[in-house]
Design brief:
The chain is α+β, with helices and mostly antiparallel strands. It has 2 domains: about 280 residues, Beta-galactosidase, Chain A, domain 5; about 375 residues, Alpha/alpha barrel (Glycosyltransferase). This is Glycoside hydrolase family 15 protein.
């Protein structure tokens, strides 16, 4: 498909004009008014209030953003046609556009003059190419946005960033925007106003030749220079590059922004060819996957594409989300930088990718895990996309934050926290990888041996848990559970490696941990609790059946799943924990965690509550954005997305939940994936 053959849009696409989804269900309770968000009286860095005169937010809803990626960096595009978040050359580099965090922090808009709300937005099927359709009083306009993929281009010398095996395709480091007037006449506006280094710097523009079609923004030391090339004529107005024209029916234009060594297209025909190559790349990639013939297939495919877009292909890292500091609580302080790779995601990522037949991506992520475990290093919970170990956290007080939510943070201080789930995550990943190949590579044995020994050494000590709370360390039950996973999977791998003495020793410790959990981590009702000696519930205990700690028909498993479903929910959606019951070192409440709600779907299937699981899964899928994307949280009652976006862990949990329900519907015997049950 090209811009020369734009097919009509159906009702579903047209319904996205206001950012709503035709699938969205009404909750049983009336919708609550949306939170006002910002701290009262707070203003953005340009002196403007984060709310318009009529009280509406000047910020798009988080779930209304479109997501683009070339598997090396990414961008978020608002419904207005503005790129409002982009970091180059890596996803964790300083931003060049950050309007999503401060309305004066830079943007790049292509769209009709005087019209900000499109009539439809969609991805071209099977791709990460975003298409936006506009209606103006005088005509219709279609804009397509993509981050270009092309043939491998490091031919004369090796890449300075790639550690994984070169493929046929690679990022072009070009954001391409093609425009076509399909009816009537439309006045087109283009405005590019970069604000490098999280809006702490400004650019210097200049023309690159004697004409008007090519300009460059010099960004200083924080980001690479940005080159703009177009079929339009640019004017340089202060810190902006702008272009405008009146388009008539059939007229076409393009705008390309590049930041690497590859040259941007110079003609519209060249732009179409580049767009077609990118479209073919994504469709060829998604065709390699194995997706069930089911109505929910579209959610699985969009989740797979999103996860691919959240990978950093040079190293195989999978980042948790594309953004930093999008608030978990409107106007609150629970704002974190998620542009890094969490080791705990590895088990879910590998299972999700293997289940969908995307083995190359799974292999690359596993290779990244091997890289960070090398040289007998102490394993961290998270790393930079290049494997960096130090992720110093600092704040950006000059930025207003999304709807006034402060602080805006860069880096993540949790990188040096003690969290005992990390060893179990690595060992489970190794076990999944080894099972898929029925062998254990010799190079992995020293790595896994060290991680098992670390779990054995620390399992009885307190930590800060799976949710990285910033209160005092506690004896979190889920941390003990993951230490059990480390010992259990270590024993299985030792047997696979014919190290039977290690297998016997590690299994003995696994049984000791299991007895400790079942003695101290269960209340009088038989419900697994958040921490030893306290009745508080925690959604992480939904992993008890998923990790095969106990059989799904064990009374304690059923009691735990149903207690969380009935007592740790708001409007039927699952909280991580009750903030008033957990010392997480922060103030205020948070939304329901979509990861946990999808975990509940899987856990309900495990205990035989298939109809309840299916109903919840249908509801959760109805909360997807109009582009089938998810943030970290959903606000109960309103369905509004909160937290960083799009969130890899949410999409991984979606894959798990959807496949659980589909397998239950089709009567497949193996409902889960984490291996066999522990003998009881």
């Amino acid at each position: 498909m090209t811009l020369e053959s734009i097919e009509p849009l159906g009702a579903d696409a047209a319904s996205t004009a206001s950012g709503t989804s035709p699938r969205r269900r009404q909750t049983s309770k009336p919708s609550k008014p949306q939170s006002s968000g910002p701290v009262k009286g707070h203003t953005s860095s340009d002196g403007a209030s984060p709310r318009a005169w009529d009280g509406r937010s000047k910020f798009p809803h988080i779930g209304e953003y479109g997501f683009l990626s070339d598997c090396e960096t990414n961008a978020l595009i608002a419904p207005s046609g503005s790129v409002e978040w982009m970091c180059v050359p890596r996803p964790d580099s300083p931003s060049i556009f950050a309007k999503i965090l401060d309305r004066g922090a830079g943007y790049f808009r292509v769209g009709p003059h005087g019209v900000r709300v499109p009539v439809a937005r969609r991805y071209l099927p099977g791709t990460l190419i975003l298409e936006t359709t506009w209606q103006t009083p005088t005509g219709w306009l279609v804009v397509r946005d993509a981050m270009l993929m092309g043939p491998w281009h490091d031919l004369e010398s090796r890449s300075g960033t790639h550690r994984r095996t070169p493929t046929d395709d690679d990022a072009e480091h070009i954001l391409l925007r093609t425009i076509k007037c399909v009816s009537g006449t439309v006045d087109l506006d283009v405005v590019c106003e970069p604000r490098p280094d999280y809006a702490r710097s400004e650019v210097d523009w200049e023309y690159e030749n004697s004409g008007y079609s090519s300009v460059v923004a010099h960004t200083g030391d924080s980001n690479p220079d940005l080159h703009l090339r177009s079929s339009l004529r640019f004017g340089l107005e202060g810190k902006r590059a702008t272009a405008r024209t009146r388009m008539t029916e059939g007229a076409t234009h393009f705008v390309a922004m590049s930041w690497g060594s590859q040259s941007a297209p110079t003609t519209y025909a060249g732009a179409l060819d580049a767009m077609w190559r990118t479209e073919r790349f994504w469709r060829d990639w998604i065709t390699q996957g194995e997706f069930p013939d089911h109505p929910w297939r579209i959610y699985l495919q969009r989740s797979a594409l999103t996860l691919k877009g959240l990978t950093y292909s040079p190293t195989g890292a999978l980042i948790a989300a594309a953004t930093t500091s999008l608030p978990e609580t409107p106007g609150g302080e629970r704002n974190w930088d998620y542009r890094y790779a969490w080791i705990r995601d590895s088990t879910f990522a590998l299972w999700g990718l293997y289940t969908l037949g995307l083995e190359r991506e799974a292999d690359d992520f596993f290779a990244f895990i091997q890289d960070v475990c090398r040289d007998n290093r102490q394993l961290q919970i998270m790393y930079g996309v290049g494997g960096e170990e130090t992720l110093e956290e600092f704040e950006l007080p000059h930025m207003s934050g999304y709807e006034g939510a402060q602080p805006v943070r860069v880096g993540n201080a949790a990188y040096d926290q003690s969290q005992h789930d990390v060893w179990g995550a690595v060992l489970d990943s190794v076990w999944l990888h080894a099972k898929s190949r029925e062998q254990l590579p010799e190079s992995l044995w020293p790595i896994l041996k060290r991680q098992v020994e670390e779990a054995a050494k620390h399992w009885h000590k307190p930590d800060r848990g799976i949710w990285e709370v910033r209160g005092e360390p506690q004896h979190f039950t889920s941390s003990k559970l993951m230490c059990w996973v480390a010992m259990d999977r270590g024993a299985k791998l030792a047997r696979l490696y014919d190290e039977h003495d290690y297998a016997k020793s590690w299994q003995k410790i696994a049984d000791e941990i299991a007895d400790d959990i079942c003695t101290k981590g269960v209340d009088e009702r038989g419900v697994f609790t958040q921490r030893y000696g306290d009745p508080a519930l925690d959604a992480s205990l939904l992993l008890v059946p998923l990790l095969r700690f106990l059989p799904s028909d064990d009374y304690r498993v059923r009691a735990t799943v149903l207690a969380i479903a009935d007592e740790l929910t708001e409007d039927g959606l699952v909280l991580r924990y009750r903030t008033e019951e957990t010392d997480d070192g922060l103030q205020g409440e948070e939304g329901t965690f979509t990861i946990c709600s999808f975990w509940l779907v899987s856990a309900l299937v495990e205990i035989g509550e298939v109809e309840r699981a299916k109903s919840l899964c249908e509801r959760l899928l109805g909360y997807a954005s109009s582009l089938n994307l998810y943030a970290e949280e959903i606000e109960p009652g309103t369905g509004r997305h909160l937290g960083n976006f799009p969130q890899a862990f949410t999409h991984l949990a979606l894959i798990n939940a959807v496949m659980h329900v589909i397998k239950a519907e089709t009567g497949e015997a193996e409902k889960g994936y984490f291996g066999v049950h522990r003998p009881v």
